[in-house]
Amino acid sequence: MRGRDLFLSAKPVLNMTAKAMRIVPRPLLVWWWTLSDLLPHLPGVAVRYCILKRLAKRCGDNVLVGPGVEIRYWERLSVGSNVSIHKQCYIDAYGELDIDDEVSIAHQTSLVSFQHTWSDESMPIRDNAVVSGKIRIARDVWIGCGVRVLSGVEIGSRSVIAAGAVVTRSVPSGVVAAGVPAKNVKTIALDSGGDSSKATSPGQSRFHG
């Protein structure tokens, strides 16, 4: 059974469980989130989904979150439907973070929606003010393993971010971005009148995490 079909069969129970969690204090839910790493795969995914639906600003259907994922500022995080966030990712939504539908985020990726300043020389850099910057990941994006997405970035729809890339600037729709810092290296989606020679072949996986 496909993940989406499995979710649909369990959706009523998952939604009721998420609603019941409204009476559970937030610190306890965050603790349960950590403990869910000890559960087998499917029960762990179910528990994490219910907690995410309870604590996040928005959470759609069929969201898979792997073990070891750390989330900060849950209330500023929006997640669409059919999204997968794989194990050991770090998500900091201090400056707000929107993840649209059909997005896959491979393991050990970091999404950080703020950055440190260093202008006040009277104090250590770590104690200087931070500046927030919203991150938005549009529909149908694939983010490879070990990617770093920094504050203020928007990733356009149907784009791929290559494994190990550091994304410091916004990425347009329909491209592969790779490198440190990430640059557009290939077009994978065509607009009207586009050059078909720029499109990748189906199933090309060189940049996937």
TrEMBL record:
PROSITE patterns: HEXAPEP_TRANSFERASES (PS00101). CDD domains: LbH_MAT_like (cd04647). GO terms for molecular function: transferase activity. InterPro entries: Hexapep, Hexapep_transf_CS, Hexapeptide_acetyltransf, Trimer_LpxA-like_sf. It holds the Pfam family Hexapep. Keywords: Repeat, Transferase. The keyword Repeat applies. The keyword Repeat applies. PANTHER family: SIALIC ACID SYNTHASE-RELATED. This is Acetyltransferase. It comes from Paenibacillus nasutitermitis. The lineage of its organism: Bacteria, Bacillati, Bacillota, Bacilli, Bacillales.
